[in-house]
Amino acid sequence: MTNRTFVYGAIILLCANLFNRFMGFGYQYLIMTYLGGEVYGLFSMVFPVYMMALVLTTAGIPLAVAKLVSEEISLGRPQQALAILRISVTLLFTLGALVSVLLYFIAPFFAARLFADIRVLKVFQICTPAIFIVSLASAFRGYFQGWQNMLPTALSQVAEQIVRIAAGFSTAMYYFPKGTDWAAAGLAIGMLSGEVIGLLIIGLQFLFSKKTRAPATTLAAPLSARQILGKLWRLSTPITAGRLLSSGFSALDALIIPQRLRAAGYTFQQAATLYGQLGGTAFTLLAFPSVFTFALATSLLPAISDAAAHQRIRQVRALSTEALRLTILLGTPCLIIIFYFADPLSAVFKSANIAPVLRILAIGSIFTYLQQTTNGILQGLGKMHLPVIHSLISSALRLPLLIYLTGNPLYGLTGCAIAYVVGFVTTAILNLAAISRLTGLPANLRDLFLLPGSAGLLMLIVFRLVTPLLDGPLWGYPAAMGIGSVIYLLTLCLNGGLSRKDLYRLPWLGKFIP
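Given the sequence above, the corresponding structure tokens read:
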């Protein structure tokens, strides 16, 4: 039943994230077509710094809340879970307000000294209030995640995305005649508007949630506020360090890549445009399958925490194996599609020259998906510090390569992609080795790699045969992708990669499987 609840929650988030991702694709297309890569590049330069400030504010508390709430629910203490939420909301309210106000007033300093382009100031100042709003919403999301109820998070994310796109594009188009910096500020206004709606939606769901009034089923003494804060601190500190490092390195990349592109001979405008195409096209396409791995990782933490709290190591192994298998099953066809159709996919986003970069990133994409899933497994096991250590090791390898290769005129963005792939592979391998050591997880090469690999190879052959026949019409490439995907699924059903048990565990559809 726990396995099915885990899959159910993952699929709810998957549906929401798929919707958001498709909406995001449309949004990226509109931005790159009507506003251009320079506008998105200015917005992207600020975003990593914004994320780093958000990590400092939330301090890993949402994931800690999810883990603690999951443990309290499994022990029959729902009112204790509610106390954890109240304390986390108070803490995040205070931190969010302080960081937002402080960052708003020191934004001119950052814009003048840290960024390669002073035009980012407007975007930076508009983003700062969103830190306060996201902090509050994240506490409620962590609470519902601890209950293994992913629906409130899914609904708030969908509403947030709809408002972000509608408000962001319309505002950016309105201000576009004033300049690219004003258009980038319009995108930031859309992001802020979406976060406000997301908080409102999940807050209302909490108010009407019956589980918040569930009676206790144990007479254990409640934890004091000091004890709760202590547990939040112990769990959130390594998560904060990991996310801070990740956001810090992303912010560093936002500073390094445009500057190194200029060292390679590009102008300010060309560097901003190329950086915008890297984020707005290459990483947007690369991140599409992460809608599933994000859903898996989010569902894994409370499920594995529950199993670990009751010392059910066999269940931990089963959940981990299943998550890794599903990650590779979905990641393999996405890797092949992105690699094979890099040229037409890049052309859709008006970034045809980014196709070689996209192919290199596609080769390492499966490791990015595994990295996200394995992070969720390790966090569920309470080993919050391991992803931090592994991230540091991979960054120590990636950053020197990024600086050297991106600034080399022979490589440019291609060298940037090579450096990223080295980081992806390193982190994923270190995470997998740690999980195997902690749980005794067997390396089932047949189920994890051989079965999806053989199906993927047949899919690639089908692409080579079918694509020339469909080349030309507008629907040709989507049709070829669809045919290849069907062949991939059929091959998995025939070689045992997908079984009746897998179909049975699907929510809504499983009850129809005999």
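The two ends are 17 Å apart (CA to CA). Try to locate this feature in the token string yourself.
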